Structures are given as structure tokens and as C-alpha cells.
Amino acid sequence: MSREVIAAAIRGAHGFVEEAEAKLAEAVQAKGEDQKVEFPDTAFYLPMVYALMGLEVKTVADLKPVLARCRELLPAEPAKELWLPYLGDGLDAGIATLLALETTCALRYMNGEPVEEGCTGFISDTIQRELGIQLVDGRMPGFAAILGPAPANEIALHTVRELQKRSILTFLLCGRNGTSMKDQLIAEGVELGWDTYIVPVGRDTQSAIYVLNWAVRAALTFGGHKKGEWKKCLDYTRARTFAFGITFGPIPDDWYAVGAGAIVMGFPVISDHESTPEVRPTGVTTYEALVRQTDPDQIVPTCIEVRGVKVKVEEIDIPVSYSPAFEGERVRREDMHVQFGGKYSRAVELLESAELDEVNDGDVTVKGKDFDQVEEGGAVDLAIHVRVAGRKMKSDFEGILERQIHRYCNEAMGFMHTGQRHQIWCRFSKEAVKAGFRLKHIGTILHAKLHDEYGGIVDKVAVTVTTEPEEVTALIDHAKPIWTARDERVAGMTDESVDTFYSCTLCQSFAPNHVCIITPERLGLCGAYNWLDGQAAYEINPTGCNQPVPKGKCIDPVLGEWENVNKFVHEHSNGSVDRFSAYSLMQNPMTSCGCFECILAIVPEANGVMIVNREYPGDTPIGMPFSTLAGSVGGGAQTPGFVGVGRLYLASRKFISAEGGLPRLTWMPKELKEYMRERLEKRAKVIGMEGLVDKIADETIATTSEQLLEHLTKVDHPALKMDPLL
Amino acid sequence: MKTPKQRSVDPATVAMLEAAASKGLAVAWDRQEAMEPQCGFGQLGICCRNCTMGPCRIDPFGEGPAAGICGADADIIAARNLVRMIAGGAAAHSDHGRDIAHTLLMAAEDEKCDYQVKDEAKLRALAEELGVKADGKDLRQIARAVAEIAFGQFGQQHGEVVFAARAPADQQKRWQRARVMPRGVDREIVEIMHRTHIGVDNDPVNIILQGVRASLGDGWGGSMIATDLSDVLFRTPEWVRGRANLGVLEPANVNIIVHGHEPTLSEMIVAAAQDKEMVELAKSQGAKGITLSGICCTANEILMRHGIPVAGNFLQQELAVTTGVVDAMIVDVQCIFPALGALSQKFHTKFISTSPKAKFPFAEHIEFEESRALEIAKRIVRAAIENFPNRKTEPCVPGHSNPLVAGFTAENIYAMLGGRYRPSYRPLNDAIMSGRLRGVAGVVGCNNPKHRHDYGHTEMTKELIRNDVLVAVTGCTAVADAKAGLMCPEAAMEYAGRGLQEVCRAVGAPPVLHLGSCVDNSRILVVLSNMVKEGGLGESIADLPVAGAAPEWMSEKAVSIGFYVVASGVFTVLGEPLPVQGAPRVTRFVCEDMEELFGGKFAFEADPIKAARLMIDHIDAKRSALHLPGPMYEVPYAPRTAVEEARAAE
């Protein structure tokens, strides 16, 4: 079947190359070889040619080697029987198509041939920068190119609305029989343009190059790849540009050729037509390459799945919108109907596993006062207790699933959730409560999402949500030993005792270059994933965000630097981080995403460090509260002297051991100190520094560096006598 | 006596066995039956002729002698015999590699040489890999430097053979730990002969580890050099169409068969047979043209590079002569029956030997010299043509031959899966990781008249592919599968499971990939290393969901191959057991203990379906160790764990 697809793509490619050759010959004749050729407002010449061939096309003559390359690439159609392997030929035809289309379209600009009214034609670098950054950082989850008019106006409307709902940018291309999707949407009164995320590009197939050479510029602009680095550019577009094509109606040869070009870039194509053969094996594209979906309602969901776009909108039966777009949404005090936790009341969440017959799937039990029964602006206790069961469920997975509650809750509009375990803080907006959002909907969300994302291990989910204070107390008491047990599981393990660490790239949607390396003695910076969780997460999903990282040869045991870890971090940080030290704050420290439980920062005056946790709102001796510090630490950059950490790392043998470890700690918020006291005292005893914990200042002692220094001198804090940090 | 159909599953072979019987001609199968019962001591590996105090033999039933005259027990004797087989096999492959290296050196030194570098890109890639700086050197100088390094590998006395660095680091570490990293190609073979001399190495495990070392010197040394330098001289194969089986012989044409192993001879015969002058000469002798075809691995070499048809595999060599239309059977080295001499006398066929290393009864010897290659090749072809009018029997050519696609290499898999801009093994690894492909199997080896001809190869291959295991083949397996039609791309639709079908459809490849001759098993090693490098399937070859098999093996070369494959981390099933079963410790070492050291081990299973399932079980176990899901689609032989789970649920 694929043979027909590739045969068609190759025929289409021949057509495009011939067209470009004729147009070039005509240009040479009419304007001469020295005539200037360029697209408007771009520093990348002909971006596709620039990325794939490294050529800066400035004149008509410069186009000759481009078309010569097309000729070299153009294969013959595969034989009808006893064919030779054709996939490579099909992809080569795709490249030839991209180069030929760009040539043709550049010559159109040279000739001053007009772009259709209301269409963008070539997309400028300015728009590339503005919208591209959103695509790369995940605010815009992806973009779609739609070829052809839909079979009916309603389907056109439905499709773009579904894409809009998911914040996916949509390009419209290719008319058929005198009509196009642009015409259909205008007839339906849809507003088109960059603001509405629905952008008509051109009526013909050739205009597809404008979308694709826009996409390839992401690799040059945001990926930092150079001209001619074709492999890196194409790997980048596949890995990081979440684009896909949708075709309506039977696919003609020239669309197949463009499709082959898209597929080489890693963009799959979804066809609504029954005649389209599928190409399902993966590898060129991340998931399937060419997929058929004849049900108009399912087209967009299929696209999302096939491209692996990180948006999932399931039908979750709640009265407010639900989408990852709302993940970062804050509910401000004046918009708030009610809150739970933070410093206003107690709130706790726990997920634990049970036997299959102990859980009745879908049960949502609500106890205590619901939203409409509490005073507006008030604070109430809350406990969320999730019980899951499944044939493949293991208690090792509990921590991982529990950690998802945060994300699942946040994705509901008007529901803000931060923290974990008994440190959660939730707010519900007035609007959400007015729309009918109630406690039971928390259960609805968790039930749906756990099934959706962890269906492989979870067969049954039941949720109890309660605001009864006694029940909340009971759950906290019940949960504490469970959490301790989870934390202690790794307690006996050392970094030396394993030869593999685990990565976590869960947060790359926010911080595309951030990679967490989780070792037995250093948990993830969010504080919720330890080494065993990494191992379990890998077991649940071997292709997911937690990958084993074999340490390889040790480069420096003190800094905690290993050959393979460096290699892994380099690769997965998009080349932005070359070296990584697990145990140092000062030399190549770990990057931070934004989810860190605490921030560890150097206090130069004290020759030591301080730590501040997310919950602590006040000032710190280095003059910045957590929120200000977070701004400069996050984002996936290495910032020596500043690093995000999980709180339990403080008590680790490897806590900034390259800089001397725990004796460097000079200041921490009181609440954190009390929480960690027992563990820290134990550690202090091991290193022969009993009493150290009491020498560490907190906000009751110092909030400025002067006060801090005074205190440290008074208590004879060991940091003062250690080797200079700087 | 077995009937022809009991002797072979190949219709052309069956037809020719009937024809041979009717003419009263005895072939290998007849001689094998006449040999029954074959010597039990030999089969069990417990007779020793290494000194003249003997021969000694151990009584396997424990009633007679338990030790030889020197005191060697069954394990010592079997281990010594086994590693001497490895020495023979490794020597054969490596001598082949040495000849190719010699030819490259000649080509580099003499611009008038009939051999020249045909694959500049591969030469340059090799030069870079071997640390030969290209700066300012012309192609000839680079070729010379590469040839010298390759040549040097054979006599190297210390260090490590250079291509061992191609293996994943983890695999190399295993070799270093077990102290079996080969220092040079020849040295390890010599050391086998020393250690197995009376009164030297008498620890069976220590003896076998030296065998492992010599075999690695073959796989990652001699054979790999043979493959790579052949690619440089004669060009790296590309996908090519061909046909296989005796039906490719054309009664109206002059039929020349090349049989043996080394491409130096066959490449020149190809050139000579296509020479206009020769074609005209053939016509002047009353023939329509010239049909060149091959038998054994020479056939594979010229199929892979030129699409020259394959007349048959190992056990068909006598049957080819029996057709009465073979005007010359030209041979060089390895796997050539001395019986061909007497048989040729009964027909008009000229039996021409060419190698000073390999002379045969009743053969006409035209010695092949690389320095006058084309001239001698033409002389040989001319002799064949001039023999055309001497045909004396009615042609008896069976009408069977099947089309095929061949020409797969470790290099062109990149382009096959990604074209020129996305060259990658990713789609292969992805397919395995997702369960669309369950794994990959290498099926290789000879024919053996003890086993029904081609049955083991084809049935095993079919069982594997219908269970979504992609199969890579070389040598006589490749010819068997080609004859059975398994090597056309259309075969995927007929024989493969749904997952493999999807992959074949997407890529346009057959479900069975022909990687070349038996020295080209080195290509399989590189493919496996590339899969590890691509990522997602573990850190060493031993982690990969792959398995190997030689269902009908018979030669010492196969023993060497088996050992280097197992020591490279691949579980390998042999259709014919190694001659060690009279020695319990040796048997345990090769079938169990080797796994801990190297990640691979042997199993013996004559039934190809059962053997295929052992391979699949192993593949499934590796999948689960990698936390990979089960097969994506329902497969006829479900994962055993699933079967057990279902049973437990009942």
C-alpha cells in the first residue's frame, strides 16, 4: 500500500521539479542570472534551501545548484512487482519537492506574482519569532496545515473550532474544484487571521512551502542550528515542532509529494478519505506517518494522538473547560470563591493502591460542606483520597500517580492547585463555582485522567473528597507513614551502589532544555520523584519522560560527573548543557525547570548557602523572596550558585558535597527547618557536628545578610571557617 | 533409502535427485546413507587422534575407558576437538580475508592492476575509522594505508583486533573480562593448535575460551576485513533483483558456474563472461549467449553486487553438473566436493580448479593469479565456451527458479529507512520497541544431508516471520529462502505476521533480508552494533531482542561463526548439535555458562519450528527485560508469559 503512496509522491515530485526548472529557465531568459531573488522580511534567504543545503540564494543563478540537487534526488517510481526498498526514495522525493517548491515560490516573488487576497504567502521572520516561541515553549501546542476544502462547511467549521479549542495554529492551503476551506469558513462567518489562529496561506499546493519553510526556521532560530546542518534541522523539526497535516478528499500526486516533504521533517499527515492507504510504522515521524480517519468528529483527536501533541482534551464531564492551557492559571484572591490549604487551612491528597475487589470504579464520595455551602472568600479543610486498583498496579507506582493529581487538577479552568502531599493549596474561582463546579468534580477529573493516562496499569479508580475536619486529620495521620515509607525506600541506597540514574524531562513543556538527573541520593527537584520512582515510571512507560541514564565512566567523583550522564544531558538539553555535576552548586550545577520545591542559593558574605522553600513568602538574607529567585533560577539554564532542589536533598550525604555539604547551610525558613529537623540532626551527627542544626539561622533570626553574618559569628557557624566558596 | 522428497523440500532438487537416481549416479545423500550408522564416538566428540599413543576413545556409557592414555577425559578431548574445528573455520574465513587484503594492496600499488578501488566512499569511511589521515593523500595512497593496516591484523601479536572497537563498549568489556579479546587473527588460531597438542591445555573451559578468542578474531577480524575490503574493491552492495535455483541454467546458452567463496575470482569471471568478444565466441560455437551463475557463497557475492543468478546452494553442486548443461564448473576454495571431479567425467562438464590451495581429482587446473586476473578469467571462460559443442547428454534442467531481492548491508539500512536526509536505524528500533516487530533473527549456515535439504532454513524462516520476527540471512540459508520465494517483497503479504507486514509495506523490503555470503555474517555483527548505538534497546548486543540459528550447518566455519556470534551476545540455536554431547562439562559450558560471560549461549534443536520458538522465547525474554510491550498484533506463537498467565487465570 505504501508503494502506491510513494509512487504518487515521486510522480508529484517530478512534476514540481519540472515546474521549477521551467520557471527558472524562463527567469534566466527574461531577467538574467544576476536578477535578485528573495523572500520578504527574512534573514534566512530561501529558508529551506538555507537549512538543507547551506546555500544563501541571492540571485537567479544561485537557484541552479538547488535544482541540480533536486535532479540528483529524484528517484524512479517503485516497480509494481519485485520492487526494491522504496521508503528512502519516497523521502528523497519529499526533499526534492521542498527544494523545488521553494524555488518556484521565490521566483513568483521575483516576478511580482500576487498572493491570493487574504492569504499570507511567505511568512516573515517577525511572525516566526512571535509565534514560534509559543510553539517551542508549549504555549501553543502545535500547528496544523489543512489541505483542501472539507466535504461540507459544517465539517470545516467543526475542524477548525476543535483546533482552536486546543490553541493549535491552523494554516489553510489548497483549493479544489474552485473552492477552498478559506471560502468555506468565510461563508460560515469565521474570522480568519493570526489573531484567531486560523491563517489562510494560499490556494495552491505550492504555497505549502510557506508553512514548511516557516517550520524549518524554528530549527535555525530556536534550535540554534546552522545553515546546511540538515540533519540537526530535520531532527529538530521532528522532535520539537509539533506540526501535522490534514487532507480532505482523495489525495492527488502533488499533495502526496508535499506530504513526503512534511514526513521527512517529521510531520505526519491525517487524511479523511477512505481511499488513502495508511503508513503506520514509526521512526521517520515520531508516531504514525500517514493515518486515515474518516469520521469528521475524530479527525482532530486523531491528529493530536498521531503527532504526539501534548494536548489532551478528553470528554471530562465537568461544568468548566478542561485543557493544559489552564495549567499555569492562577486564581487571584479577589476572583476566589474558596480556598483549601496554604496557610489558611489544612489540605491533603493521597493516592494509594488497593486490591481489585476493594475498589468500585468510578465511585466518587463527597463528605462535608460543598463549595456552595461555604462563605465566599473563605478557607476550609480538604482531603482528597484516591484509591486505585489494577492487575499491573504496584505500590511502587503510587508516588508517581499521586504526583499527577497536581497537573490533573490544574488543567480545569478556575481550579488552582500547588504543592503535594499535605502541603497542597487549592483555590476555586467564583466563576467556576457559579458554573456549577463542586467537590465531586475533583473526583470526576481524577477518575478520567488516571484512566486516560495510566490505563495500562490502572483498572479501577475511586475518589473520596471530604471537607470534614476529622476526616482530614484522619487522612493526614494515615498518609504520613506511607509517605515516610516511600521516602525511606531509597534511604539505604547510595549513588555508588547503582550504575544507572534516571532522567526526568517531564517539565520540558515549560523548560525545553531542562533535564533532571535523579540519583539515589539526590531526588528530583520537585521533591516528588526519587530514584525508585524514576525506575518505576520507566517500567510503566519505557518511552516516557523518565529514562535510565547509565553513569558510564566517572570523570570526577567529588563533583559527581560521569561521561554518559554528560552525554545524556547534552543530547536531551538540546545541546545547551555540556557538563553536569550532581553534587555541586558552583560547577555545572543541575538546571531547573520551575517546579523546584526549594531554591538553594549562595550567600557570598557568609561563605555558605541558604535554602528557601516555595511556601515561604517572606524575604531572605540575599534580598529576594522565593518568587523573585524562582524567576532567575528556572527556565532550564545552568546558573552556578543557584539551583532548585527537593527538600529531602538537604539531608543527603551528597548534599552539595563538592562544596563541603551540610556545614555550608547558613539559613532556612523556620517551617522548613522544623520539618527537616530530625533528618538534619541525624546527618549532622554522622559528620560529627551535633548542634549544627541550631546554628542555622531562620527568618526569626535574620532576614538580611548583615543580621545573618552577625548570627553566624555569634554561634561560630562552621561555614565561616570553610574554604572560600568563590 | 530415503525418497527424493524426504531428502529435500526444494522441487528442483527433488527433480534432479530423481534424475540422478535414474542415471545411476551417487550423490552426497547416497554417500551419507552408505555411511550409516555414523561413528557415535565422533558424533559425541570423544575420540582423540592428537598423538600416536592413541587413537583413544571414551566410553559414553561409563563401562569402558573414562580417560585416554594420557589421562584426558571426555571433556578435555571434546573441548580440544571442538576448538580445532574453530581453528579450521577461523583459518578458512581469515585466509579469505587475507587474500582480499592482498588484492587491495596490489590495486593500490599498481594502477594497471585489473582490480581497482570501486567504492571510494567506503574506502574513505574505513580510512577515517582506522585513523588514516586523508590529508594530501591520493586515493591509491589511502587504499595502501588501509590495506596495510588490514593486512597487519592477521599477523598482529599484541593489542586488540581493530574492528572489535565497533562492538558496543559493554560487549568489549565482557571480552576483556573473560580475557578473550583477540590480539591478532592468526595468533589465536596458532595458539589453539598449540594448546591442543598432547599435554598442553587440559582445562576444558580454558581450552574453549581460546576457541572463543580465535572465533572473535574471525568475526570481528578476518571475516570483517574480508567483507569491508571486498566492498572497497568490488563496491558495497546495493539492492538488486535476482533469481535462484537450478532453473536459471539456460540449455541454449553456454553455462558457467562459479562455485566456492572468494570474490576475487568470481568478479573477474563476471567481467570476462560479459565481454563482447566472449559473447561472440559463444555464438560462434552455436550457443545463444552465456549464462553465468553461482553456487555457495561465491554465488552470494556476485548476486549481491551484480544480480547474477544463483544456481543453488551447497547440496546442489552435484545436481548442477547432473543437468548436463554446465559447460564449466569453476571453483576456488571451501565447500567444494571432491566428488565433482569424477561426476564431471560422466558429463562433458569441465571441472576447473583455480586456487593453488585447492586442487581436486579429475580437475583441470588453471591457476588464478591476481596479477593477471582478467587474462586468466578470459582463458577460463574461453575454455567453457569451447566446451559447449561437447555436450553429450540430453539437457535435464528443472524448471524451477524464484525471483528475489538481495543486497542488504549494515550501511544501506540507513538509507533504506530514511533516504539521504534522514539516514537512521530509528524506524527499525522503533518498530521493535513498539512491538510491531517482535525482534530480529539471523538464520545462517550450510546444508547437511543428515537434515532434509532446505527444510530447516525455510520452515524456521517462515515460523519466525509469521511471528513478526524480521529475518536476516546469509550463505546457504539465503539461497534456500530465495528458492522458496521468501526473499521477494511480495512474500511479506503471504508469509509475514501483521506487524512485520506493516514494516515491509512501509519500507518496501522483503521480510527476509539477504546480507551476503558467510564471511558477511560480519555485516550482521555491525547491524547489531548499530541497533545498540541507535538507542532504546539496551547497552549491548546481549540486551537486544535478537537470536541466531544455523539449522543445517555442517562446516568448521559454521562452528567458528557460531562461537563468535554467541560470544557477541546472541543466543544461537544449532540444528545439528556441536560434537560435544559426550562431554557433560563442555556441553554445560556452551549451552549454559557462556551466557553469564558473554550474554549468548547455544541450544541444539533439530526441529526448525521448535528451534524458532526457542528463539522467539528468547526474544520475548529480552523484550521483557527491556520493559518493552508484547507483540503489537496477535501472533500465532504467543509470548510464553502470556500463555502462562492465561493458564494461571484458568
Please give a handful of descriptors for the protein shown.
heterodimer; A: 726 residues; alpha/beta; Rossmann fold; Bifunctional carbon monoxide dehydrogenase/acetyl-coa synthase(codh/acs), Chain M, domain 3; Bifunctional carbon monoxide dehydrogenase/acetyl-coa synthase(codh/acs), Chain M, domain 5; six-stranded parallel sheet; four-stranded mixed sheet; 21 helices; 37% helix; globular; B: 650 residues; Substrate Binding Domain Of Dnak, Chain:A, Domain 2; 16 strands
List the helices and strands and how they pair.
The complex is a heterodimer of chains A (about 725) and B (about 650).
Chain A: H1 2-31, H2 47-53, H3 64-73, H4 87-111, H5 125-137, E1 143-147, H6 153-165, E2 169-173, H7 181-187, E3 198-202, H8 208-221, H9 230-240, E4 243-247, H10 253-264, E5 269-271, E6 290-292, H11 299-307, E7 336-341, E8 347-353, E9 364-367, E10 378-379, E11 382-389, H12 398-410, E12 415-418, E13 425-429, H13 430-434, H14 439-454, E14 460-466, H15 469-489, E15 500-504, E16 516-518, H16 531-540, E17 548-550, E18 554-556, E19 561-562, H17 563-572, E20 598-603, E21 608-613, H18 626-633, E22 642-645, E23 665-667, H19 670-686, H20 692-695, H21 705-715
Parallel strand pairs in A: 1-2, 1-4, 2-3, 4-5, 5-6, 7-10, 8-11, 9-14, 21-23
Antiparallel strand pairs in A: 7-13, 11-14, 12-13, 15-16, 15-17, 18-19, 20-21, 20-22
Helix pairs in contact in A: 1-3, 1-4, 1-10, 3-4, 4-8, 4-10, 5-8, 8-9, 12-14
Chain B: H1 4-7, H2 11-22, H3 28-35, H4 40-44, E1 47-48, E2 56-57, H5 74-109, H6 120-129, H7 139-155, H8 169-177, H9 185-195, H10 204-234, E3 240-244, E4 254-259, H11 263-273, H12 276-284, E5 290-295, H13 296-306, E6 310-312, H14 317-322, E7 326-331, H15 339-345, E8 350-353, E9 364-365, H16 373-387, E10 402-406, H17 412-418, H18 426-434, E11 439-443, H19 455-466, E12 469-473, H20 475-483, H21 491-495, H22 498-507, E13 512-514, H23 521-534, E14 546-550, H24 556-567, E15 572-574, H25 584-598, E16 602-604, H26 608-625, H27 640-649
Parallel strand pairs in B: 4-5, 4-7, 5-6, 7-8, 8-9, 11-12, 11-14, 12-13, 14-15, 15-16
Antiparallel strand pairs in B: 1-2, 3-10
Helix pairs in contact in B: 5-7, 5-9, 5-10, 5-24, 6-7, 6-10, 7-10, 9-10, 10-23, 10-24, 11-16, 19-26
